[in-house]
Amino acid sequence: MIFPRNFIVKTTIALALCVTLSPTLVYADGPADNIPDKVRRIPALGVEVPAAKKQELQQGLAKLQTSLDQLNKSKDARIKALIPDVEIYHRAVRCALEYQEFFHEREIGNGLKLLQQGQERADQLLKGEAPWTRQTGLVVRGYISKIDQTVQPYGLVIPDSYTFEGKSQYRCDLWFHGRGERLSEVNFISQQQRSRGQYTPANTIVLHPYGRYSNAFKFAGEIDVLEALESTKQNYRIDDDRVSVRGFSMGGAACWQFAVHYADRWFAANPGAGFSETPLFLDVFQKETLKPTWYEKKLWQMYDCPGYALNLYQCPTVAYSGEIDRQKQAADVMEDALKKVGIDLVHIIGPNTAHKIHPDSKLVIEDKMDSLARVGRQRVPRTVHLVAYTLKYNQMAWVTLDAMGEEWTQAQIDARLRSRNRVDVKTRNVTGFTLKMAAGESPMDMTQPVTVQIDDVVLEAPRPKSDRSWEVSFHNTAAGWQLGPAVYEPGQLVKKHNLQGPIDDAFMDSFIFVSPSGTCASPTVDKWVQSEMKHAIVHWRQQFRGDARVMQDSLITDKEIAASNLVLWGDPQSNQLIKKIVDKLPIQWNKDSIVVGNKQYPADHHAPILIFPNPLNPEKYVVLNSGFTYREYAYLNNARQVPMLPDWAIIDLRTPASSQYPGKVVDANFFDEFWRVK
């Protein structure tokens, strides 16, 4: 390709590509948003809906609800699977009306249009028809989230070349939108029905996740991306080896995050602007003076990308920045981090450009992305690098991190396939791992044994099976590395993938708020529990755009215990489930005191917050007295939206809850790798 004269490419080859966001959306306000005691509401309250329009909206909602009720009675599996494509319109308008989230008078008209569109889909589906499922161009669809069973929307651009019959598979680019404090479901769906976005490559399906509003696609927003992608794969023929992530501004931040955490899933990443970590960005962009606790600094590693930079060895990356954009800082930070691990980042820089994508740079970026798409993802690379700070992100190609010496301290596995059935593995802060290749993937000789050298230990491993699959696990002991997974005593709890904490991890899967049927022993505790539970319910909808499921303790059955993380509100006197499990928790709690290790706190004005494997079902969590742990102050800038509490904390209730904390945090820590108090 002949490149335009006025573009800049700074070659620092980083194997990663990022998702880009819309540059037109609003981002945070800067130093005015640095005052915890003066936090504006996000989203702001919208306009009052005139009585006549309100009645019209209510009538449209009622009519569409009647149609949805009829559809839900259908026994046709195909019809039931498509109900979310109708329900997204109803929920979008219902929430905007119920919570005053029409932010401009014209949005009321958009709401009426969405109700008409939803009713049209409902009428078609009642006849057994679903023409939107065979539509090219702009299409909006929905799915039911595992987290809270709410319907969530996503947008698609289906290329005109897509054939609804046949077996050919298509490239898919995920595009992460920018920050938009008014990005209600009404506005998101309306936008996805009129705009194709920044990039629409030929013969490519472009997926626009909603990400549950404006949280930089973290936590429930992260799961939304994965669920929307899975829904797209169920409905369209997606080539798993040609899926990329792209974004700009807040979407660029999301792209960096998805690139480093899930590097083996993408053929490329294309991040633009945004942020890639917390402290430096908040200093440069927000002019904020940070005073984090030691555990908050540890928890930054959940989403801060520089420490994960080596993972981009698996993901070709093309970064973009405007030359005079303050958010160029994100790629500069990642460029430095990559250089430290021996990788040079490809950084396209738009000349004399602020916070937007330069048109000549777009041409260069698209040429590189097209070239990478033709190569596709490498499923079984001969060299794999996996860096992790938490078992939440423990997978890279054929390498899985099973156990760490200490979570939130960097762990690393470097694995190389050598000739003659030999694998070399180097580890740091790793106590267990698995090497696994699916059927047809192993390049090794299935008639010969496999030698695995781990650090300085050489072990003989099983040879590949006849279907060319191969799987072997190792664990570290006082005597060194041993073949096979670690064996524990019956009932021994061990931190593992998706059961490793911190508290916020409980809200990345199915959860239920369990309200107390009784009254807490302390009136102070009882008042705080009721206030915090209400806060958690309100802010789950406000910030993660869902409806928290709430059940009283007496109504929880084995079904809920088996299927969901349980968030228990109250104390052992007020909540039947807390009473049932309290003696199986690592923190002691009775009506007089809370005991953590050798420390004791009066129970009349203290309360514990914690996450722990549910003693009634250790494959799920219990959480005591907490929703997601960042609060209103963090809503003002996406880089602040990180976990604020570790695995447990003791709260002094004499200090009122604030925009940052649920009270005064007098002690907090992580449990060890066996879920014990450190």
Automatic annotation (TrEMBL):
<feature type="domain" description="Peptidase S9 prolyl oligopeptidase catalytic">
    <location>
        <begin position="224"/>
        <end position="358"/>
    </location>
</feature>
<feature type="signal peptide">
    <location>
        <begin position="1"/>
        <end position="28"/>
    </location>
</feature>
<dbReference type="InterPro" id="IPR050955">
    <property type="entry name" value="Plant_Biomass_Hydrol_Est"/>
</dbReference>
<dbReference type="GO" id="GO:0006508">
    <property type="term" value="P:proteolysis"/>
</dbReference>
<dbReference type="GO" id="GO:0008236">
    <property type="term" value="F:serine-type peptidase activity"/>
</dbReference>
<protein>
    <recommendedName>
        <fullName>Peptidase S9 prolyl oligopeptidase catalytic domain-containing protein</fullName>
    </recommendedName>
</protein>
<dbReference type="InterPro" id="IPR001375">
    <property type="entry name" value="Peptidase_S9_cat"/>
</dbReference>
<dbReference type="InterPro" id="IPR029058">
    <property type="entry name" value="AB_hydrolase_fold"/>
</dbReference>
<keyword id="KW-0732">Signal</keyword>
<dbReference type="Pfam" id="PF00326">
    <property type="entry name" value="Peptidase_S9"/>
</dbReference>
